[in-house]
Design a protein that fits this description.
about 325 residues; alpha/beta; Quinone Oxidoreductase, Chain A, domain 1; six-stranded parallel beta sheet; 9 helices; metal-binding; zinc; ADH_Zn_CS; oxidoreductase; zinc ion binding
């Protein structure tokens, strides 16, 4: 099979290696595709703690595909099942997954790509946000995740204020149901605009979905007294500072909405499958860029640079 290997900062090679064999309780997937995650960007930049070359397929973890081999003791799956899975070397044509980290996709989704991990992540963040009808929600950063959360919050009866840098993203937020959009340009102007829109009380929920210091600072400023700040951005490129004076004075709840328990990941993926199969959510327009495996470097660079019209890159296999 072909697999991508990171050989240095910003460098990949496509190598031919043997197909992995599933062990007991595992399945092998012939992958149809894998989403490209912003969490890949720190290793892609080559910090000191990354060891090159990486293992074949490493960093890819948003896979979907076909079960083509099974180890002993696997129940509830059959050869040929189309599934979403939590796997961890999915920048390759095949990968191994534990059977309990695999979810069968219904026939109604047969024509759709399905990067289960980020879709499940969105559902888990939404659940932990405890958004209710009548609340005012600010979402900072309208990328793939922010767009889905805008749709989910709007459908729950909340009023969404979308804040993002790119005009493209603000237009998308409107299409996903945002009641108000604000360009992410001037810190104090954003605060004053949200204050105006909320009658001076600010927001019941603020979801920070960027993963940088400034949006985190802004999120605290936009959260009302006894409100909830949900950190959905991926903050793994260094330490952060927080305005504890403000957080403490307002008595806000701060939720780090990242999961590490595979069972919770799988719960989110199942909820995403149900939402998409029932028509409550349609993410297809959010998959804006597709690349073959040999152009994984371009996919990673686009995820980093976010050219106009970019939301989510998929690596697909023929």
């Amino acid at each position: 099979m072909r697999a991508a290997v990171l050989t240095g900062p910003g460098q990949i090679e496509i190598r031919r290696i043997g197909r992995p064999e599933p062990g007991a309780g595992q399945v092998r997937l012939r992958l149809e595709g894998c989403g490209v995650c912003a969490s890949n960007l720190t290793p892609w930049a080559g910090p000191e703690w990354v060891r090159f070359p990486t293992e074949p397929g490493a960093l890819g973890h948003e896979a979907w595909g076909i079960v083509d081999a099974m180890g002993d003791g696997v129940e509830g799956l059959t050869l040929g099942d189309r599934v979403a899975a939590l796997t961890y070397k999915s920048y390759a044509e095949y990968d191994i997954a534990d059977a309990d980290a695999v979810v069968r996709l219904p026939d109604s989704l047969a024509d759709q790509p399905f990067p289960g991990e980020p879709l499940g992540c969105a559902m888990n963040i939404f659940r932990r946000s405890e958004i209710q009808a009548g609340q005012t929600i600010a979402i900072i950063g309208i990328g793939f995740l922010g767009a889905i959360l805008t749709r989910l919050a709007t459908d729950a009866g909340a009023r969404v204020i979308a804040i993002s840098r790119r005009p493209f993203s603000l237009d998308l937020a409107r299409r996903m149901g945002a009641a108000e959009v604000i360009p992410m340009e001037d810190h104090h102007a954003i605060i004053e605009r949200v204050k105006e829109l909320t009658g001076g009380t600010f927001c019941d929920r603020v979801i920070e979905a960027v993963g940088k210091q400034w949006p985190l600072d802004l999120g605290g400023e936009l959260t009302r007294e006894r409100g909830r700040l949900i950190v959905a951005g991926y903050h793994q490129d260094g330490p952060r500072q927080v305005n504890m004076w403000l957080w403490n004075w307002r008595g806000i709840d701060v939720i780090n909405a990242h999961e590490r328990d595979p069972k919770i990941y799988m719960q989110g993926i199942r909820e995403a499958i149900d939402a998409i199969a029932l028509g409550r959510l349609d993410p297809r327009s959010l998959y804006t860029h597709s690349y073959p495996l040999e152009r994984l470097d371009e996919a990673l660079n686009a995820t980093r640079d976010r050219p106009d019209g970019f939301l989510k890159a998929l690596v697909t296999f023929q």
